[in-house]
């Protein structure tokens, strides 16, 4: 049981680009926070349901998903104690839910309202956003207290950052308290000069917006761990990336 006296921090992991390790970070950072005695809820807001699969559930077999909470205002369906974390899962029905949201009254606050009844039960809620600037990402950011941005150490990926920052600014009209928890460079290969240059660009151009965390290396162990439905620290406790993930989780503890 957590001894934290801080209010629940709701962190959206968001980048409109795909393949930047959002889901991997959501699962692994959640695990490290849980191991540090925090109560953690993961919310899968991506219709692709990768996080739901990573956590060992089968999306097409689920009776209830986060879609029921945001469309029909039912309680969040929470699966408990999966690798010491809880999960509100997703499946492809969420794609249709996004279409329905377009004409839903007060749509911007549907996820925020779904989360509110359980806020007192958790120290951290991590939201895995879809790789787009659509409504599902928007309502996730409206529900969040913080946004953590995974960003691939590739110059092409870095070029989309202006659009991402503009999105965050527009979200602040509905959620004035949203703050940037930081940027996590991902899929980094220090032997690749292009990756080194991209990391330099990320550090110099984004540090004014938020903390730049140590880069997470490109590693097949992450894929192997997800296929094994386990966080990296469970699958391969001695992997060098485990220490980096632990450092990021520790930094998240001091968010206010």
TrEMBL record:
Keywords: Plasmid. The keyword DNA repair does not apply. Residues 9-180 form the AAA domain. InterPro entries: AAA_dom (IPR025669), DNA_Partitioning_ATPase (IPR050678), P-loop_NTPase (IPR027417). It comes from the Bacteria. PANTHER family: P-LOOP CONTAINING NUCLEOSIDE TRIPHOSPHATE HYDROLASE, PARA FAMILY PROTEIN CT_582. This is Cobyrinic acid ac-diamide synthase. It comes from Gloeothece citriformis (strain PCC 7424).
């Amino acid at each position: 049981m957590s001894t934290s006296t801080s209010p629940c921090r709701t962190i959206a992991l968001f980048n409109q680009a795909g393949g930047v390790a959002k889901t991997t970070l959501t699962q692994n950072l959640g695990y490290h926070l849980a191991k540090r005695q925090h109560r953690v809820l993961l919310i899968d807001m991506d219709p692709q349901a990768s996080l739901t699969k990573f956590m060992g559930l089968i999306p097409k077999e689920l009776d209830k998903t986060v879609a029921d909470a945001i469309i029909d205002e039912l309680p969040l369906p929470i699966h408990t104690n999966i690798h010491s974390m809880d999960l509100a899962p997703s499946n492809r029905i969420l794609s249709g839910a996004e279409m329905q949201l377009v004409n839903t009254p007060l749509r911007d606050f549907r996820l925020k309202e779904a989360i509110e009844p359980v806020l007192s039960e958790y120290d951290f809620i991590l939201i895995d956003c879809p790789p787009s600037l659509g409504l599902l990402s928007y309502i996730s950011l409206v529900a969040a207290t913080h946004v953590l941005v995974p960003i691939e150490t590739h110059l092409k990926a870095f070029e989309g950052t202006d659009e991402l920052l503009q999105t965050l600014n527009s979200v602040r009209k509905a959620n004035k308290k949203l703050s940037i928890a930081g940027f996590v460079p991902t899929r980094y290969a220090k032997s690749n000069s292009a990756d080194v240059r991209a990391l330099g660009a990320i550090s110099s151009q984004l540090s004014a917006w938020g903390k730049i965390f140590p880069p997470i290396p490109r590693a097949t162990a992450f894929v192997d761990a997800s296929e094994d439905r386990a966080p990296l620290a469970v699958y391969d406790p001695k992997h060098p990336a485990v220490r980096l993930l632990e450092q990021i989780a520790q930094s998240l503890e001091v968010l206010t």
